[in-house]
């Protein structure tokens, strides 16, 4: 019974990682690739580590694995935010079918700080 | 089918295919930020491979390597992002 739960968890984790890898290869745009990587791969790695925690079944190993999962859950969004911000400021183009760029004109081009007064979005933009 | 055989013949091949797919993106680019994201993804898959190998060989000491890999992946991505943005500011 324990073996079956471990098999299911590790298979789900590996499949999520495979889906994230296909997304990284096939998505048309940097920002879409980034979103696929962070969410799906973090979920997949969490499931794989949970399978390992069930496999060993010792308190010391489980504590170590929970520490890894928490560390990944905390750091993955921070790293994704920083690299997405750097990509936006270095001028990465959006996909040609992307409709809205909500950050456009909202920041100071030299200091990279949010100003909020450069061009306020029109009401119909906000409703979307 | 025992659990070790299942890990060896099903889980590891899936993860290996993932490594190949991400590495194609790592080589293609086209910008440096795409390569940084692909590198981060490669390190994430490496953590999964280490975990599967630790289960196969029943050695939980290998999981320490996974902690260090998670740390290196985070620090590498943050350092790349910091210096890319800094370079853009100075130009």
What key attributes describe this structure?
heterodimer, A: 128 residues, mainly alpha, 2 domains, 69% helix, elongated, B: 91 residues, 3 helices
Set down the secondary structure blueprint.
The complex is a heterodimer of chains A (128) and B (91).
Chain A: H1 2-26, H2 30-56, H3 59-89, H4 123-127
Helix pairs in contact in A: 1-2, 2-3
Chain B: H1 3-28, H2 32-57, H3 63-90
Helix pairs in contact in B: 1-2, 2-3
Short synopsis of the structure:
The complex is a heterodimer of chains A (128) and B (91). Chain A is an all-alpha fold.
Largest sheet of chain A: none
List low-pLDDT spans of chain B.
none
How confident overall, as mean pLDDT of chain B? 89
Which regions of chain A contain 5 or more consecutive residues with pLDDT less than 50? 122-128
Given helix and strand content, the structural type of chain A is mainly alpha
Helix content of chain B: over 70%
Strand content of chain A: under 5%
Largest chain-chain contact? Answer: A-B, 53 and 50 residues
Biggest β-sheet strands, sense, barrel of chain B: none
**Beta-strand percentage range of chain B:** under 5%
Shape of chain A from CA axes? elongated
Note the overall shape of chain B.
elongated
What is the domain tally of chain A? Answer: 2
The chain-level structural class of chain B is mainly alpha
Rounded to the nearest angstrom, the distance between the terminal CA atoms of chain A is 49 Å
Q: Give the oligomer, counting copies of the same chain as homo and different chains as hetero.
A: heterodimer
């Amino acid at each position: 019974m324990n073996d079956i739960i471990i098999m299911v968890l590790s298979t789900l984790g590996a499949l999520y990682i495979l889906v994230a890898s296909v997304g990284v290869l096939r998505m048309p745009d940097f920002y879409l690739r980034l979103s696929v990587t962070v969410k799906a791969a973090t979920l997949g790695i969490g499931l794989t580590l949970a399978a390992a925690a069930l496999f060993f079944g010792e308190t010391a190993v489980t504590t170590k694995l929970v520490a890894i999962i928490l560390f990944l859950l905390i750091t993955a969004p921070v790293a994704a935010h920083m690299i997405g911000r750097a990509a936006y400021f270095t001028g990465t183009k959006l996909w040609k079918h992307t409709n809205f760029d909500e950050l456009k004109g909202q920041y100071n081009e030299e200091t990279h700080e949010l100003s909020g007064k450069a061009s306020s979005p029109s009401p119909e933009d906000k409703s979307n | 089918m025992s659990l070790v055989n299942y890990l060896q013949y099903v889980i590891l091949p899936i993860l290996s295919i993932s490594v190949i797919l991400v590495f194609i993106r790592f080589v293609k680019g086209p910008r440096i930020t795409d390569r940084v994201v692909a590198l981060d993804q490669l390190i994430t898959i490496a953590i999964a491979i280490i975990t599967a190998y630790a289960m196969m060989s029943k050695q939980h000491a290998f999981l320490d390597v996974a902690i260090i890999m998670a740390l290196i992946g985070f620090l590498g991505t943050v350092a790349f992002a910091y210096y890319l943005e800094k370079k853009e500011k100075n130009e």
